[in-house]
């Protein structure tokens, strides 16, 4: 079992490194092709995109992964019980997006150029949902290789589409270039789904009875998925409100729309991806941890679970601390090499040590989900979002530009991490 955990972690680390590398390359090419203004426009839309992706998945991927790892059910029937629920949720959200798009664009984001891209989100979310559900099946089986291959192919496809498509679309205007970037997710997610299907066992037989959803499976999946969704939903709503509150308050304080879009683009497009660079390590560790913690906690083997979580946190810090020191000491080198800019140096120096706590947050949250304590993730996220949103509003009124957002992000990270740590220790004593 120990060897399987280490093997899964190594596969996810290697795959995570490659996908992070490709993801950074995509971000670099995108930022250089559409510039700071275009990146700022994209980053304004991204919280809305993330919100609807979280809603469309409804916590079902996590539920499927947990139930498959327990290996007490007909996994094929479980899969086909979840898919129809996911499709129904997606249809509802597609209608909702078409209704809300004008309000989100004109009244909340205060930028009419975001309208078409918000509409495009409706076309993308069904593909992201199905792709996530397919991946979660392999996670439950502790088969990490298909997940890694599908992720790498997805990023390669997205990169190719970006290199070829953006220069062709850009003459039409930035809003159309951003629209193209959003829509390119359809093809990249579709390629990921195809790869995952190809990795299914050759001897897999699907009976007609397997296609009929099982009410008990649906009920159990929702009982796991809904708490996860509410937690993710609260986090996504907080992220969604972030540019809305920031834009509205800073405009009220006399800052120009161009300044807000530009600085928010620098913070969200350059600084945050950089300081969260080690997160692919922590995510890989958390993903490998989930099925093991789920299985062993169900057996009552708390000492083993505690040892695995400690190992995961130690690994996260072992990777995160050296990187954090570099980001504090020489951030301009990384910004110049990666993004061909030195904008955001001061933001990077402040946020780098804060994100060290973010790195250990992932295995803690994953462990709580694996132990069936998703409600605690929800509580932690809710408290964090309330503090982050309220502090963002208050601090933005102090005429300190984007520093109000940076302080609110820091408060959120501290609160969620320490709350999760406290709960994990409580359940394992």
What does this structure look like?
By secondary structure, the chain is an all-alpha fold. The protein has one domain. Helix content is 85%, strand content 0%. The protein contains 14 helices and no strands. The protein has helices at residues 2-57, 60-70, 75-108, 115-140, 144-169, 174-198, 215-252, 257-275, 279-298, 302-329, 331-339, 345-370, 374-396, 403-427. The longest helix has 56 residues, at 2-57. The radius of gyration is 21 Å and the shape is globular. The model has no long low-confidence stretch (mean pLDDT 81).
Q: Round the mean pLDDT to the nearest integer and report it.
A: 81
Number of helices: 14
- Could you tell me how far the N terminus lies from the C terminus, measured between alpha carbons in angstroms? 23 Å
Radius of gyration: 21 Å
Shape: globular
Query: Which stretches are poorly predicted, pLDDT < 50 over at least 5 residues?
Result: none
Oligomer: single chain
Structural class: mainly alpha
Helix fraction, binned, reads: over 70%
User: How would a crystallographer describe the biggest sheet?
Assistant: none
Number of strands: 0
Q: What number of structural domains do the residues give?
A: 1
Pattern of helices and strands: HHHHHHHHHHHHHH
Strand content: under 5%
Give a topology summary:
Elements: H1 2-57, H2 60-70, H3 75-108, H4 115-140, H5 144-169, H6 174-198, H7 215-252, H8 257-275, H9 279-298, H10 302-329, H11 331-339, H12 345-370, H13 374-396, H14 403-427
Helix pairs in contact: 1-3, 1-4, 1-5, 1-6, 1-7, 1-8, 1-9, 2-3, 2-4, 2-7, 2-9, 3-4, 3-7, 4-6, 5-6, 7-8, 7-13, 8-12, 9-10, 9-12, 10-12, 12-13, 12-14, 13-14
């Amino acid at each position: 079992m120990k060897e399987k955990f280490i093997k899964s972690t190594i596969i996810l680390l290697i795959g995570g490194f490659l996908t992070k590398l490709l993801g950074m390359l995509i971000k670099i090419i995108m930022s250089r092709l559409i510039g700071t203004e275009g990146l700022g426009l994209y980053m304004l839309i991204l919280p809305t995109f993330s919100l609807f992706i979280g809603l469309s998945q409804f916590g079902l991927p996590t539920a499927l992964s947990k139930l498959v790892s327990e290996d007490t059910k007909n996994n094929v029937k479980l899969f086909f019980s979840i898919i129809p629920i996911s499709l129904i949720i997606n249809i509802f959200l597609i209608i909702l997006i078409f209704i809300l798009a004008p309000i989100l664009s004109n009244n909340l984001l205060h930028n009419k150029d975001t309208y078409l891209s918000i509409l495009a989100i409706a076309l993308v979310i069904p593909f992201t949902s199905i792709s996530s559900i397919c991946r979660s099946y392999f996670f439950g089986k502790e088969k990490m290789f298909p997940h890694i291959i599908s992720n790498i192919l997805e990023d390669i496809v997205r990169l190719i589409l970006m290199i070829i498509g953006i220069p062709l679309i850009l003459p039409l205007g930035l809003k159309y270039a951003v629209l193209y970037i959003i829509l390119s997710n359809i093809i990249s997610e579709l390629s990921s789904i195809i790869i995952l299907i190809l990795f299914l066992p050759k001897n897999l037989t699907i009976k007609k009875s397997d296609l009929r959803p099982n009410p008990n499976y649906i009920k159990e999946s929702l009982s796991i998925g809904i708490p996860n969704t509410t937690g993710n939903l609260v986090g996504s709503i907080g992220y969604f409100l972030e540019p809305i509150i920031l834009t509205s308050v800073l405009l009220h304080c006399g800052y120009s729309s161009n300044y807000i879009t530009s600085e928010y683009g620098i913070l969200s497009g350059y600084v945050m991806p950089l300081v969260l660079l080690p997160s692919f390590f922590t995510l890989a560790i958390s993903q490998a941890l989930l099925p093991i913690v789920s299985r062993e906690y169900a057996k009552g083997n708390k000492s083993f679970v505690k040892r695995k979580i400690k190992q995961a946190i130690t690994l996260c810090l072992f990777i995160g601390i050296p990187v954090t020191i570099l980001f504090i000491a020489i951030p301009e080198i990384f910004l110049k090499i990666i993004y061909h800019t030195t904008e955001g140096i001061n933001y990077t120096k402040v946020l780098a040590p804060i994100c060290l706590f973010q790195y250990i947050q992932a295995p803690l949250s994953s462990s709580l989900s694996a132990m069936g304590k998703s409600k605690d993730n929800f509580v932690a996220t809710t408290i964090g979002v309330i503090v982050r949103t309220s502090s963002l509003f208050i601090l933005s009124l102090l005429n300190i530009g984007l520093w109000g957002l940076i302080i609110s992000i820091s408060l959120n990270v501290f609160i969620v991490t320490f709350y999760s740590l406290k709960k994990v220790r409580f359940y394992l004593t």
